[in-house]
Amino acid sequence: MERYDRDYGRSRNYRSNNRGRTRGRNRGYNSRRTNQSGGGGFTFIMLLLMIVAGAYFLSGEEGKDTFNEWIGKAKVAVSEFITPTEEVAATPLPSDMTPCTKANIAKIVAYTFLEGETIEDTTGEDKLWYSKYYEYLKKDPKFASFDEAEAMEVMTYNEAKQFFSDLLGDGVGVEVASDREVGNEPLTLKEFLKGFEQALEHAGKKDLLKYEELSILATTSTHEAVGPWQVLTDKGVYGFEGLILDPFIGYTLQAVVKGDEILGIVDTLSLEGKIGECYIESVGSGQATVKVGDYTLTYDNQVVTENEVGKICNVVLQDHAIVRCEMVKEDDTDTLLRMTESYVEFEKGGCLPFAQLAVYDGTGQDFYKNTSQLFSGIKVTYTMQDGMVQTIKVVDDHLANSIRVLISEDGIGTYSHDQVIVGSDADYTLIYGDQVKGFLAGQVFNADEFAWEIGKNKVTLIASEEKSLEMQGITRQDQHPLYKGQLEIYKEEEGYTVVNSLNLEDYLAAVIPSEMPTDYGLEAVKAQAIAARSFAKSHQKSNKYIKYGAQLDDTVSTQVYNNVPANAISYEAAKSTEGEVMVFNDRIISGNFFSTSCGYTANHGETWAVGEIFPNSTPSYLVARQQYIGERAVNDMTDEKEAYKFLTKSAKEIDAFDKDSPWFRWQLTLDAAELEHVVNSNLYNLTTHYANMVKVKDGDKWVIGEINNMGKVKDIQITKRGEGGNIMELIVVGEECTIKVGTEYLIRMLFAPIQKDSTKDPIVIVRQDGSEIQNMALLPSAFFSPDIRYDDKGLISKVTFYGGGYGHGVGMSQNGAKGMASRGYTCKEILRHYYSGVEIKKM
Q1: What is the reported pLDDT for 143?
Q2: Taking the chain, what is the end-to-end CA distance rounded to the nearest angstrom?
Q3: Three-state SS sequence of 390-425
Q4: How many CB atoms lie within 10 A of CB 728?
């Protein structure tokens, strides 16, 4: 690849603006070559240091305004103070006049010697930027000599000598080179860092400091998208707390960094800045706009033309203008298949390593900005240097009529396969790198016996047209499953990962019977086909499974695939609805569905949480709806008495679409011992893994707490129901503590009716047809109402849950669809009933 500067290919990480801590204002900087004496320059820089220190004694808007004013004056002063020479780009400039304050040292030491902890800013708004570092260093006795009152003093040579002696102990010498008299003279940053490197080497931590060449592009005061105390560089975003970098925007500096924090500036290497592999967004009116990771920058333009717009280029900056531009060769359009932590797999280009990636949007949407937005199957171009992928540009995000499915070993969620054995009753093909080999019908591929080569971890097996591949190492419904299309087998560090790439309609034919019995009636099955296709299309662009090279998996985490083989009815349903999806406001919707309703469905936003936000917004097509014919049986399902009245009605009393399902009504009765066992069996898991929705009462507050046992259960209080009657939140009062649980899934988990003591009888749920289901992993639904009996001590002696339905309750009830089909509803009428306001369109 042609380049004008080989330094361009270094990895860049354009990080989020939110760095998790507040940065202090700038302090100190490195001067460039000047025509003034060292003493004059030193006095000037110390004056700037005092100015910045003073800024920190101000707070609020006044302090911010004053600081910005001082920064402006500093920029002017620097420009007048510096007289650059033409040799500056070729010769590193001296940093002998850069002083090293004790605040600098506190920050440097905190970032290096005390690892494994986060430096929390708990010092308050009235403190200075360096206060947290002094607070942090107090934790270690060997740093007891650090005194915040001396923070803005410049360290002397003798003090440095004593510092290193205290740090390393007697008998370990650290030499700090100097061309001047030493003793009580001020130490420069370069001198300190050289001695500090020796100290780190003695401590076995030499690699903690890293020197980085950085072109300074923008800071928080020059670009609104750059966060507080962040600086955008050609290598990504860094913190620069305690430093002044604004005067050096557009220049190239040598910095000492630790992780994503700049600890000090050592030299000014060039009065020019460089941006490697940026995206040219637009040109016009004497300016050019470029994308650098997530950030948009505009420069005066002398050289960029319309030919470079939409291209990846290397540019050189001078005086806030682009003075040189070179287009970087992009590889031909390819399909991104897989992205792990260390490599990207392309369909044609194969597996290529990367460290960090800049992502650009070449589709015109201005949407794709980082790797978290990429998905398996997206069309891209990419650039490389030194064998590493540097940038990815999205050129087309439309999906082909195919799908990539991650195959689990157990049908539940274990994606690592101990073995992979594949056969077929027809001829099939193996592709391994450049090798192509034919297998005859009956021949078996065994991954354990295959001759894998180092660096080549993928085998692709392709079935003959209209034929299938049999995975003989796993079972579904007591038989080996058959897969159309191709199986991609990845050899991992442990075990194998398998991805099935196939036509979308063939995929749906194997989803339908796995999610709904095909004897429910053709119109119901066709409704399931459209809902499943909508779900698949709306989730294919998720990056959840990109590390495996897939778009969805074959479990309930997305939708169940090939657990039950495709049959004639499922193929007919897929073919007769081919390409049809549900659309709302021109977007394909996620067609949520579940097994059985209680007579009402639930609002989407009253069922699932988004982080700690619950309830949240509900799309108008996923709202709670009545699922029976006739007038409302009750007025308000959010009311406890009304909910109890409805859930204790039998199927004979309600002309519901789901009334013939055994799960339409169910009962669970627990005595005191069973209730205590069930709740306490799940407390630890709930309070440790779902702390966002499971809180413990502490006085008048609800807090996060780890609970193993609450003792006997004293009470169950339903505190919030959704519009459809699903329990959104409840409180359980125990002898030892009280907990609050939110969302239907966690409530179902809390009361999971399973007896884990093998010496005791199983816990039984009785369905409306009299059938009994033992030891369920979850309560059937959150549509239930408790009938509680108390003993004379105020404890629960027995509770009966009167419940209805099976599943989360959002979207289409499959048994309801069956009931509607039996009454003569068409598939589209069924879908429009469950998904209000949607259109059925052929894509």
Answers
A1: 82
A2: 40
A3: EEEEEEECCCCCEEEEEECCCCCCCCCECCCEEECC
A4: 25
What pLDDT, on the 0 to 100 scale, is given for residue 86? Answer: 39
**Phi and psi at residue 284, to the nearest 5°:** 155, 150
250-268 confidence digits (pLDDT tens): 999 999 998 889 988 888 8
Distances, alpha carbon 487 to alpha carbons 421, 490, 537, 540, in Å: 11, 10, 21, 18
- Token look-up 């020059």 returns 222
Q: What pLDDT shows up at residue 78?
A: 38
In single-letter form, the type of residue at position 361 comes to D
Beta bridge partners of 462: 429, 486
* The length of the chain, given as a count of residues: 843
Q: Which helix (H) or strand (E) holds 677?
A: helix 672-689
Residues 6 or more apart whose CB falls under 8 angstroms from that of 204 comprise none
SS3 315: strand
Task: Check if the beta carbon of residue 552 is closer than 8 Å to that of residue 508.
Answer: no
Residue with tokens 């980085």: 212
Task: Tokens for 24, please give them.
Answer: 């202090």
pLDDT value at residue 68:
47
Kind of pairing between the strands at 295-301 and 321-327 = parallel
CB atoms within 10 A of CB 574: 28
Beta strand 402-407 pairing with 552-553: parallel
Largest Cα span, the chain: 101
What does the pLDDT read at residue 142? 77
171 CB neighbour count, 10 Å cutoff: 6
Q: Report the pLDDT value the prediction gives residue 251, as an integer from 0 to 100.
A: 95
> pTM here?
0.77
User: Looking up tokens 């609020």, which residue turns up?
Assistant: 60
C-alpha to C-alpha distance for 501 and 417, rounded to whole angstroms: 17
The side-by-side arrangement of strands in the sheet containing 552-553 is 435-439, 428-432, 458-463, 486-491, 496-503, 402-407, 552-553
Q: Which residues are 720's β-sheet partners? A: 729
Contacts of 19 (CB under 8 A, 6+ apart): 227, 229, 230, 239, 260
Q: How far apart are CA 73 and CA 52, in angstroms?
A: 11
Q: What local confidence, expressed as pLDDT, does residue 176 receive?
A: 60
What stretches of 294-333 show up as alpha helix (H) in DSSP?
Answer: none
Closest CA to 496 of 558, 544, 546, 446: 446
Which residues in the chain land under pLDDT 70? 1-98, 113-118, 120-126, 168-182
3-class secondary structure, 52? helix
Phi and psi at 142, nearest 5°, equal -70, -10
For 270, half-sphere exposure in the C-beta direction (CA atoms, 13 angstrom radius) is: 15
Q: How far is CA 757 from the centre of its chain?
A: 38
Tokens of 517: 């019995």
Q: Which runs of consecutive H residues, i.e. helices, occur in 56-126?
A: 60-81, 102-112
Radius of gyration of the chain (CA): 33
CB neighbours (10 Å) of residue 614? Answer: 18
Which token pair is 715?
């009470």
Contacting residues for 704 by C-beta, under 8 A, at least 6 apart: 687, 691, 695, 696
